[in-house]
Write a structure and sequence with these properties.
7 helices; about 325 residues; Structural Genomics Hypothetical 15.5 Kd Protein In mrcA-pckA Intergenic Region, Chain A; Pseudouridine synthase; 3 domains; alpha+beta
Length: about 325
């Protein structure tokens, strides 16, 4: 293996796609070049390119960080990266697989086309699911968890199971419960939050308590959006925090996080939906959401109810120990 030196873009090569430029310079296929780029092995002027389709310019300096041997080696590198996340398989059948997703792992790639996702792991471990579902980017995926959340997910392995699970989600027949640590002492032992949720102008989801729409003074306070219902019970009260068991009856984006912020008890570890006044100088930074999908129930193709549970991961247990 011979390290690839820095390559200078000539005037004749200006405006060429980066993946095409690399394939021509390194005598490899465009697919191999694309894999080098998506694995962050290529620098353009000492910076990572945004995508394989970026256009090179005259005098750009292109550097390949790793020795290049073949696409097979790039795939091995990608698989190695995916393995840094410990994904526990709770149960596996011919129709579905239930997994315990670790915090920090995206369920599926965004527009940035991240290579290290749960779907990448699924395609590698269960290649038969590639054509299952509504999108090849989300094979078998019928519901999601936020990147910095952890816990139970069910993934369909057949199209029949995918449609069966999707129907249950749409009919709100799935049971999904989470353990969530929030700021402040929640007063009600049990409550239902039914604030509507919408996407704000800045791209974040927004919600606020309902108002009486019949009163003229409330016109400016209307919060349009889709119906969203979260129900909670108190598990434990701590000095400045409350551990909740939350059941969601709808599946809106960031639902628990947005609802708890609107309820004035934001989720610990949330760097998007938060109240900076609640974080004290001596508080330990969690580095993830204290949001864990702990229970999941659905009906299988034999019309039998299946329920699964996942305990809090060690880092969340240790965080609670610090607060106690």
């Amino acid at each position: 293996m011979v390290p690839i030196p820095k390559i200078i873009v000539s005037a004749e090569q200006t405006n060429t796609r980066l993946d095409i430029f690399l394939s021509e310079e390194l005598k490899m296929t465009r697919s191999q070049a694309h894999k080098l780029i998506e694995n962050d092995l290529v620098l353009v002027n000492d910076k990572l390119p945004k995508k394989a389709g970026d256009r090179v310019k005259t005098d750009d300096e292109i550097f390949v960080k790793e020795p290049v041997v073949s696409a097979f080696d790039v795939d091995k590198q990608k698989k190695k990266e995916n393995l840094k996340f410990k994904i526990d398989v709770i149960v596996e059948t011919d129709d579905y697989v239930v997994i315990n997703k670790p915090a920090g792992l995206l369920v599926h790639p965004t527009e940035a086309n991240e290579p290290h996702t749960l779907t990448a792991w699924l395609k590698e471990k269960y290649p038969e699911i590639i054509n299952v579902g509504d999108s090849k980017d989300r094979p078998g995926i019928v519901h999601r968890l936020d990147k910095e959340a952890s816990g139970l997910l069910v993934v369909a392995k057949t199209q029949k199971m995918f449609k069966h699970l999707k129907k249950q989600f749409q009919a709100r027949e799935m049971e999904k419960e989470y353990l969530v640590l929030v700021y402040g002492q929640v007063e009600a032992d049990h409550d239902v939050i039914d604030f509507e949720i919408d996407r704000g102008k800045d791209g974040r989801m927004v919600s606020r308590p309902k108002t009486d729409r019949l009163k003229l003074r409330n016109v400016s306070k209307f919060q349009p959006g889709k119906e969203a219902i979260s129900e909670f019970w108190i598990e434990n009260k701590l000095a400045r925090f409350t551990l909740l068991r939350v059941r969601i009856h709808t599946g809106r984006t960031h639902q628990i996080r947005v609802h708890m912020l609107a309820y004035n008890h934001p989720v610990v570890g949330d760097e998007i939906y938060y109240n900076k006044n609640l974080f004290k100088k001596g508080d330990k930074h969690l580095m993830r959401l204290f949001l864990h999908s702990t229970k999941l129930c659905f009906v299988d193709l034999k019309k039998e109810k299946q329920c699964f549970e996942a305990k809090l991961p060690d880092e969340l247990k240790k965080y609670l120990d610090i607060l106690n």
